Amino acid sequence: MVKLTAQNRHDYAQSVLRAINAENIQQFRELFFELHPQDQLEIYLETSHSQRQKMYEYLSPEEFAEIFEELQIEDQKKYLLELNETYAQDMISHMSADNVADFLGEIHETKASAIIEGLEEKDAQDIKELLAYEEETAGAIMTKEFISLRASSTIKEVIEVLRQEGPDAETIYYLYVINEKFELVGVVSLRDLITSEPDSLVETVMSSRVVSVPTSEDQENVATLFKKYDFLAVPVTTETNKLVGIITVDDILDVMEEEATEDIGEFAASRGATDLTLSAFSAAKKRAPWIILLMFFGMITAGVIGQFEETLESVVLLAGFIPLIMDSAGNTGTQSLAVAVRSLALGQLEKKSLSKMVMREFGTGLMLGLMCAVTLMIIIPFLHGSVWLAFIVGVSIFLSLSIATVIGTIVPLAINKMKLDPAIASGPFITTVNDIIGLLIYFSIATSLIAYL
């Protein structure tokens, strides 16, 4: 297999494209199949429409299926239209069931039904089963291409099964043992098989302590399980412990990317709008609800400032420190929010540690507030010649930062308690809430001490 570097990748890609343009099938196939599948994918994406049409002639449906599986869903929908119906149906029949289900779940129901009807009965049944599970659950992301064993089989018999069925399986590093009712009873690793005597029975080398997940388990919890145990695969079972599929680590990497993207979108109040393929109109439509909501919160902020209009008219200099109070409180609250959301996402929090984390963040807020207050109490008298102004701003920043860290921590914890994604406690939301509280504290103190200014 050719290993492409930044230096030779362009030259090699050009050689492949030249072979296509010259209609030299043999040279194209020799060059193309020397590449890693991801490099094959990149070259495919660089080709023109006419070049791709030639590639469909030079590659069998089974060979192209490996490339098609790696495409993004939007690209799959786009390039499927370039294939003739027979080629497309044959290509899809060679894809793994979970990838086909992911694709069919994103296209028109009529088109999806037509594709399923053209598949072999077993493949069609597997895909229908996967499509029936709720999205973002273990059942929806599992694959049906796995090898199951019987405890009474010999190691020699299992090795023979692996030779025949292994090439079509998603993974053979873990093999799962079932009984006559198809219930999961054990697991055996490929290492155990290879190092055991050929005449030994599977039940003598298998482990009966199997970690599995139900079909209804949330995909984020499955990802946490993979991280905890360093699994390469995990079996998926029904409520009656019947083995129905497996989830592999490559699927979980996709889940982790999906969940991270979703959390970033929630955190920045732009859920669903982080995809660069979206049009400006679509992105604006997805962001608009949060922006409008935050705009109304901004009106509350303006109302708070309006309530202290007399204070501002008496000492106009107070207005100069409004951005400082608002920004500091908002930024500190967002930092605590990030700590809380990450701890929840990684499953690091237990009931006993919740209060500990809140107290730690409150202590952090006190320390940050004290440091900022002392700094301002030193600087402001030199800049504006007022010790009382320095005291008002310093105490306000101290209290605002202390409270902001608590709010930034408690809000996502409360949302999580309601069985919602804590990431919806977005940064802009926490920032706006802390802005309002910071202004109330600042103007309350300033109003009570205005006689000294």
Structural class: mainly alpha
Please state the CA-atom Rg, rounded to the nearest Å. 30 Å
* CATH topology category name of the largest domain: Tetracycline Repressor, domain 2
Largest beta-sheet characterization: 3 strands, mixed
Could you say how many structural domains there are in total? Answer: 3
The unreliable regions are: none
Overall, the morphology is elongated
In total, the number of strands is 6
User: Judging by the overall fold, what is the CATH architecture of the largest domain?
Assistant: Orthogonal Bundle
- Going by CATH, the homologous superfamily of the largest domain would be SLC41 divalent cation transporters, integral membrane domain
Helix and strand run:
HHHHHHHHHHHEHEEHHEHEEHHHHHHH
* Helical percentage: 55-70%
In spatial order, strands of the major sheet run 1-2-3
Distance between the termini: 78 Å
Proportion in β-strands: 5-15%
| Name of the level-1 CATH class of the largest domain | Mainly Alpha
Membrane topology: Multi-pass membrane protein
Subunit structure: Homodimer.
Pfam family, one: CBS
Keywords: CBS domain, Cell membrane, Magnesium, Membrane, Metal-binding, Transmembrane, Transmembrane helix, Transport
